[in-house]
Amino acid sequence: MKNFGIQNLLKTTCCFLFWLNLASNQLLAQDSVAGKNKNDGYLFVYFTGNDKKEEAIHYAISKNGYSFNALNNDEPVISSEKISSTGGVRDPHILRGADGKTFYMVVTDMVSAKGWDSNRAMVLLKSTDLINWSSSIINIQKRFPGNENLLRVWAPQTIYDNVKQKYMVYWSMKHGKDPDKIYYAYANADFTDLETEPEQLFFSPTNGSCIDGDIIYHNGKYNLFFKTEGNGNGIKKAVSDKLTEGYVLQDKYLQQTTEAVEGAGVFKLNNSSDYILMYDVYMKGKYQFTRSKDLENFQVVDQAVSMDFHPRHGTVLPINQLEMKSLVSKWYTVESVLKSPQSKYIKKNNIVLDSAAKKLFLPVDYETDLKDFDPEFPSFSGVSIMPNGKSDFSKGPKKISVSIAGKPAKTYEVNSGINNNPVLKGYYADPEILYANKTKKYYLYPTSDGFTGWSGTYFKTFSSTDLVNWKDEGVVLDLVKDVSWGKRNAWAPTIAEKIINGKYKYFYYFTSAQKIGVAFSDNPAGPFKDSGKALIDKKPLGIKGGQEIDPDVFTDPKTGKSYLYWGNSYMAVAALNQDMVSIDTNSIKVITINKDFREGTEVFYRNGKYYFLWSEDDTRSENYRVRYGYSDSPTGKISIPENNLILAKDTQNGIYGTGHNSVIQIPGKDEWYIVYHRFTLPEGITMGSAAGYNREVCIDKLEFNKDGSIKKVTPTLTGIKPVK
């Protein structure tokens, strides 16, 4: 009896353990699937510009919601020609369906070249894998009666109505002379058509236009973010308890910038209760990201954001690990991985990738520890990097292998080195440099570059104690906010330090709207206050062509008198009055150079000679370069040496468009440096005329022969070592 009982107990125990193990394995499998279905990253869907080829759907991905990398080399992932009636689409909005696995996208069916009042349609798209999409064109004017005077259909979006259990599409429309208003309708079950008549969802009580609506459900409320135009411009929101009615305007602007914005998009961060409100700063070619816990208060987080592309109005969708892997497998490449390291020490604009030779060079900041350096390559699901993490680059290149979604790996020779040129990260040009006796620091005052057609509207400054390590001191003058007489084209500043009544004063001369103004401050890092009017707003007597741009200020060390120089296609000079904010109009003089003079005058004094430097050719040309002459007077006549070319391109090192310079002397020493801009490297030479507004600031040594003539400068990648 006892043996029989023990046998039964053993059988029962074994059976229990078997089922326990089976259940455990099932739970582990479920956990594994759940882990793969858990949101693991983000998909950014956007378009890129106003050319027809740019009006298309693009994808980018991110692990953290801040650092995004373009898929498909930033080329469209869906053909606009195949899905639209106009040949172009804009403003893509993407939504995960209520079932968790179906995706819905809506886009504006529009080509901007045909005019802003030219489109009547939107496109509805549906997918189960984010890769293959079915689509339908909905022409509102043709589909629904009563829209004979409809002018435009803009920026559709989709939300699931839990009450009706249907997908609601909402968008802005403009009829005749009425302002844009936001409408809504319900899509059919297949998401191929709108099955209800469009109804008005929201309009501005101030009678301004309402466009680019984005509805987020939060804490029992529907938050409708939108852009208002015509009666104040910016991002506002209205709130309601119900999806389709009752929206009450919260009449305050939510954008955290003074720049023009549109295309507000809100998404929730994975593993967080916080939200990101982002919007397209469309006049500046960039996005701004803000973070919020309550959708009421927003803090700018731009310092954490990076993108290797330039998006226009789009939306972000959280995605899971399997979806990320699928997108990576379809549209990501080894080269995309290698071009997208995230280390803050890397000068990302200057990465050089040679896919034919399988080589990669990563330029890094001064004092980067190359013995223990991690480039921080993106590690999306489906990307394998060997070795990954920190390596010793101090002794030469490393072999790094990268594979995408199990495909054969590619091995690159990866090298890293310290390149002190450019000295500023990002796009800047026309640099002026000053040593401030008040602070014992150097200051750079450049044009803020990277804006299409030189359309920047603000100036920044940077400080340094050694000419190598530079601190961003922020915006010192904003034309839109600070200058009443000129709101555009912030170009080519210059600065003077003066002691007035025993105190240091700083006078900042700048170009705005092809006129020259002056602002002043007690500190070299500003902020500066504009004088209230243009200092130079017309051409000198006898001059018919050119522009009133590119000021340069020079104080004669022999007399203490200050002079202002300016001009494009001519060089003019005038004595500044003692107040430094006005000129002696009787002293205006045009200095004769030669037919090759273009712009960018720079004057300095050394060993009894007044040196005049200038740029010739066009800043969009790879042959933009610097020449010089000298004089016995700060107002000329200028003698031009036979071999007076001192700075030009270096094709061997890929350096082009070297020009518009300033010069700095190390205090107390006969040690000189030239500060100039070049095309962004390595992409500039491939950008055509756009290279002329995507420039970088560099510093190299300036040396003299015994007779005082200037030695030709060799523009370098490595730059200079810190000065003492």
What does this structure look like?
- By secondary structure, the protein is mainly beta.
- Helices cover 9% and strands 41% of the residues.
- Residues 1-35 have low confidence and may be disordered.
- It starts with a helix and ends in a 22-residue tail after the last strand.
- A hairpin with a 6-residue loop joins strand 18 (286-292) and strand 19.
- The chain folds into three domains: 35-331, 5 Propeller (Tachylectin-2, Chain A), CATH 2.115.10.20; 334-418, Immunoglobulin-like (Sandwich), CATH 2.60.40.2340; 428-702, Glycosyl hydrolase domain, family 43 (Tachylectin-2, Chain A, 5 Propeller), CATH 2.115.10.
- This is Beta-xylosidase.
- Keywords: Carbohydrate metabolism, Glycosidase, Hydrolase, Polysaccharide degradation, Signal, Xylan degradation.
- It comes from Pedobacter mendelii.
List the topology elements:
Elements: H1 2-37, E1 39-47, E2 58-62, E3 67-70, H2 80-83, E4 89-96, E5 103-109, E6 121-127, E7 134-139, H3 140-143, E8 150-161, E9 166-175, E10 181-186, E11 199-202, E12 209-218, E13 221-229, E14 234-240, E15 248-250, E16 262-268, E17 275-281, E18 286-292, E19 299-300, E20 306-307, E21 312-320, H4 321-331, H5 334-338, E22 352-354, E23 359-364, E24 383-386, E25 398-404, E26 410-418, E27 428-436, E28 441-448, E29 458-464, E30 471-478, H6 479-482, E31 491-500, E32 503-512, E33 515-521, E34 529-530, E35 552-555, E36 562-566, E37 571-575, E38 589-591, E39 599-606, E40 609-616, E41 625-631, E42 645-647, E43 659-665, E44 672-679, E45 695-702
Parallel strand pairs: 3-20, 23-26
Antiparallel strand pairs: 1-2, 1-21, 2-3, 4-5, 5-6, 6-7, 8-9, 9-10, 10-11, 12-13, 13-14, 14-15, 16-17, 17-18, 18-19, 22-23, 24-25, 25-26, 27-28, 28-29, 29-30, 31-32, 32-33, 33-34, 35-36, 36-37, 37-38, 39-40, 40-41, 41-42, 43-44, 44-45
